[in-house]
Amino acid sequence: MNRLQRTARVQLDDYPADAAWSADARVLVVAGGQGRLLWLETHAAQPQVEVLGTHAGGVLAVAWQSAGRLLASSGHDGQVRLWDARSRSATLIHSEVEWSERVAFVGHGRLLAVATGRALRVFGSDGALRAVLPEQRGVITALAWRPKSSELATVGNGGAWVHRLEPQLQTREYPWAGAALSASWSPDGRVLASGMQDGAVHFWNVAAGTHSQMHGYGTKVALTTWSANSRLLATAADQQIVVWDFAGSGPEGTEPRQLTTHSARLTQLAFQPRGTLLASGARDRRLLLWRPAQSSDAQDADLLGDEITLLRWSNDGTQLAVGDRAGNLSLYTLKASS
Amino acid sequence: MNGTRAADTRIPVTVLTGFLGSGKTTLLNRILSEQHGKRIAVIENEFGEVAVDHELVIGAQEEIFETANGCICCTVRGDLIRVLNQLRKRRDRFDYILIETTGLADPGPVAQTFFVDEELREDFQLDGVVALVDAVHVLEQIRSVAAAAEQIGFADVILLNKTDLVDEARLAVVERSVRAINATAPIVRTERAVLPLDQVLELRAFDLERVLAHDRDFLQPQRPFEWAADYQLPAGNHTVLTGHAAREASAAEHEHEHDHDHDHAAGLSAVGVVVLPVAAAQAGAAGEAEALAQAASALFAEQAAELSSGAAILPGRHLRLKLGNGARFELRLPLAGLWRIHLEHAPAEFGWRVAGAAPLQEREYGSHHHDSEIGSIGVSDERALDPAKVNDWLSYLLQSRGQDILRMKGVLSLRGEPRRYVFHGVHMIFDGRLERPWGAAPRVNRLVFIGRGLDRQELEAGFESCIA
């Protein structure tokens, strides 16, 4: 049995909109919805909030190179910046009126993918523009690096697209009459899962060349996350978490596990990397910890100051950063208990 | 505001529709530059010329999300979901959102987004849909582009802009055409989109409490006449002018410039009329207008006597006046007093004037629309309804006609229920609840539907089936 232990709580004076951990989990960079990009040294007894920079109007997204020192950020100012975490200095790599809402590193950090409306741009780790992909049919709502590959999935209205970025650009289309809101690769890289605006979850088994859809959600499905062993897919719509089991021939025809303790719409859902725990956050201000492979009951809980807007595991799965709408950022570590 | 309900802290959203050239950008710039104390964010689909330093203007390409089932009633606007979900993160900096749609945008998905997407609904509330209409070109647009009539049919308020570029007679014709599509939305005449902002912002048009507050939104039952007006007249003969003669007399009296270019009587060869006395004791009394309208309708149902120019109009009869070449008639009244003249067509369409007298009060009645067009249908009835039957009927209606119904709303009197049942709907989206008690007010069911090809008989039969 694991329990959450809160190690720190700091006031950001900003809306925690997105965040990224450094590879060594010693630094958390938070994208502030009001415009500040914040830097926190999380190992300090009382972490100080430092301002790394600002994107006027609001920071939209932040990503950390998986094993490196580069950070990417984008904002309402239409800019995309590449930061050197060591010197804490930035290079402006892209700027236009339209927002770049998604950024993601690909291929163990060799490349940076930036989604701006319907356009996808690929930059090198030196910040140089490598490629501009043909505009896809819908605005790109989510990006996901396919693990252990040089491929990237983009999703949006009209389905999913898988782009091989190296050695040559190559795009495969996975059309579907619906709007995909999220993109989650199973850690083994076989299945791409998307939550859909029309109350469904769509799976593209890219490895097998098949796809299917699970219906019956009462509202749109905005949150999807895979367990580290690629066996469970947790999804959330409204107040409910639905967990599909991909053992054997897949979830079709099986009864999913339903986790129903939240009393307001879920805003965050994330499986622990390298572990079996699932963390969820909602408008009911509650942070809940689950072990869905074993139980439908929450393992631990904490009540935050306001609606949860952010939840990020460190890459090693030992720390959890949780932000709320009132601007509080709480840091947790996992403690084994009997 | 109802004190028993928690204040709604959601950010209001006004949707601005209108064709290219209708004046949307002018209106937006006016709203943004006016001292109203609001911090407004604008979402623009047409990358126009809105540029005000201290306000936020966000460009976003219109994107209608597909659905696997292909139902238009389920479609939402992805661009609005994305942009507004970003704006909610800085919500302390805005207290109003304006959405300027492209000229050809269908307002349906825009409005539906605010009901269907539960995430947006938490922080934003659709306040109203404003349609800007270019008085010069709207008639042509209604004829040639389906989106024009849809935008008008969907609107909570219609701004008839560029009224300085057309004459009064033409304006009246335009207003009638707009009114035939949407019988409930106020039509506000403007020049260069100048108007008080409280006529477009904070309308709370989707607030159920508000449905009750606007009795005038509900249609009178359809009548065989389109217009009625009261005249205070002495006994004796009064000259009635029609066509050009009437317009010139009006213009001269109002010291307006003459305008000789149009004659909208073209095509209208005759008009039905019924003149009835308004009993002094009843003038202005509750139910008086309704009682007299019923009497006039009964007369209109009778065979009309045809009158040529120069003939006498007598009260209490259904007469048909032959128009053309400035036909004039003698209105012959036996008594002095208040007289109500009911006309089959609105006077703006053919020119009408009682010499030396101005109408004291004018009433407009819905004009008739053709089945394939967008129009409004109202039902007004005092009989109590059976709640289960109402539920069946409205469910069936939404299922079967949801795609064609742009907007509907109503106040219902349910049997055994002391409170009013209030509802409104957008396509298949429906919201209804019990509201204030009737108290001493007369219990009258009032419903209005705005949609495409609506069948009055079908709607009335459906309503009949709900009588308790």
Overview of this protein structure:
Chain A contains no helices and 31 strands. Chain A has 338 residues and is mainly β. Chain A is globular and about 50 Å long. The termini of chain A are close together. The mean pLDDT of chain A is 95. Chain B has three domains: 11-206, 3-Layer(aba) Sandwich (Rossmann fold), CATH 3.40.50; 227-364, no CATH class; 374-464, CobW-like, C-terminal domain (Hypothetical Protein Yjia, Chain: A,domain 2). Helices cover 26% and strands 28% of the residues of chain B. In chain B, a hairpin with a 6-residue loop joins strand 19 (405-412) and strand 20. The longest helix of chain B has 15 residues, at 387-401. Chains A and B meet through strand 15 and strand 16 of A and helix 2 and helix 4 of B.
Short synopsis of the structure:
Chain A is mostly beta strands and 338 residues long. Chain A has no helices and 31 strands. Chain B is built from twelve helices and 22 strands.
List the keywords.
heterodimer; A: 338 residues; mainly beta; Methylamine Dehydrogenase, Chain H; 4-stranded antiparallel beta sheet; 0% helix; 57% strand; B: 468 residues; alpha/beta; Rossmann fold; Hypothetical Protein Yjia, Chain: A,domain 2; 3 domains; 7-stranded parallel beta sheet; 6-stranded mixed beta sheet; 12 helices; 26% helix
List the topology elements.
The complex is a heterodimer of chains A (338) and B (468).
Chain A: E1 2-11, E2 16-21, E3 27-32, E4 36-41, E5 49-54, E6 59-64, E7 70-75, E8 79-84, E9 89-95, E10 100-106, E11 111-116, E12 119-124, E13 129-133, E14 140-145, E15 151-164, E16 170-179, E17 184-185, E18 191-196, E19 200-205, E20 210-214, E21 223-226, E22 232-237, E23 240-245, E24 257-259, E25 266-271, E26 278-282, E27 286-290, E28 300-303, E29 308-313, E30 319-324, E31 328-336
Antiparallel strand pairs in A: 1-31, 2-3, 3-4, 4-5, 6-7, 7-8, 8-9, 10-11, 11-12, 12-13, 14-15, 15-16, 17-18, 18-19, 19-20, 21-22, 22-23, 23-24, 25-26, 26-27, 27-28, 29-30, 30-31
Chain B: E1 11-18, H1 24-33, E2 40-44, E3 56-59, H2 78-87, E4 96-100, H3 107-116, H4 118-123, E5 124-134, H5 138-144, H6 146-154, E6 157-161, H7 168-181, E7 187-189, H8 208-213, E8 227-233, E9 236-242, H9 243-253, E10 270-277, H10 288-300, E11 305-307, E12 312-313, E13 319-322, E14 328-333, E15 337-343, E16 352-354, E17 361-364, E18 374-381, H11 387-401, E19 405-412, E20 419-426, E21 429-437, E22 445-452, H12 456-464
Parallel strand pairs in B: 1-4, 1-5, 2-3, 2-4, 5-6, 6-7, 11-13, 12-14
Antiparallel strand pairs in B: 8-15, 8-17, 9-14, 9-16, 10-13, 10-15, 18-22, 19-20, 19-22, 20-21
Helix pairs in contact in B: 5-6
